[in-house]
Amino acid sequence: MTQTQRNSQSDPYGNRPTSTKLPPLETGDHLSRAEFERRYEAMPYLKKAELIEGVVYVPAALRFKSHAKPHGWLITWLGTYEMATPGVEMGDNPTVRLDLDNDPQPDIVLLIDPAAGGQSRISEDDYIEGAPELIVEIAASSASIDLHTKKQVYRRNGVQEYVVWQSLDNKLDWFWLNEGEYVALSPDADGMIRSRMFPGFWLDVVALCAGNMTQVMQRLQVGIQSPAHAEFVQQLAARRGANP
What we know:
Layout: H1 3-8, H2 33-41, E1 50-52, E2 55-57, H3 64-83, E3 88-92, E4 96-97, E5 108-112, E6 121-122, E7 128-129, E8 134-139, H4 143-146, H5 149-157, E9 161-166, E10 171-178, E11 181-184, E12 192-194, E13 202-204, H6 205-209, H7 213-224, H8 227-242
Parallel strand pairs: 4-7, 8-9
Antiparallel strand pairs: 1-2, 3-5, 5-8, 6-7, 9-10, 10-11, 12-13
Helix pairs in contact: 3-7
């Protein structure tokens, strides 16, 4: 399909055909979600753009040590848990339709299959709609928005757990939604944080910040082999069986 053909298609909401001369997305634009998605669709070369509280954010090019490498480590950690937990899905940089003013593109999401009781769903045009249970952001230059505006958007929309790794400061924050407010989870005496939503999903924060991924993965395996994780897997299977 040519670029002109893509730009002349109707938008995903069934409105008028998209103009072939749509303005490009630029940081600071104030747009509706529908218009944001129209312009994003017309820019296939653009890899990441977000709509946060009705304002467009187009991030700068991503650097290796401050973003790409920590992103890869966290993908390995989350992906290992996903493989061990049928009914749980991990996604890399998906656009998430949270509400009419917010179309974020988190670095990583972990969600429960809707058939197993998850709170989000996959739309007919293959977007996440609603709040994934867990969102992870790697915050290098984006720490100010990740820990403030985005955090409030995720809290308001019911993202149950929110992890922010400030890679430049080598600091990790893990928030849990408790009675409508985010509460910071602190590492225990062994440097471990244990997810409240995903039994067996453990993170050795000290090892991660030290760059010791071998220990991070070893400690995760202990969580995956725990009775709590086995019980969670059984619960997910029972829910999926009840919702064929």
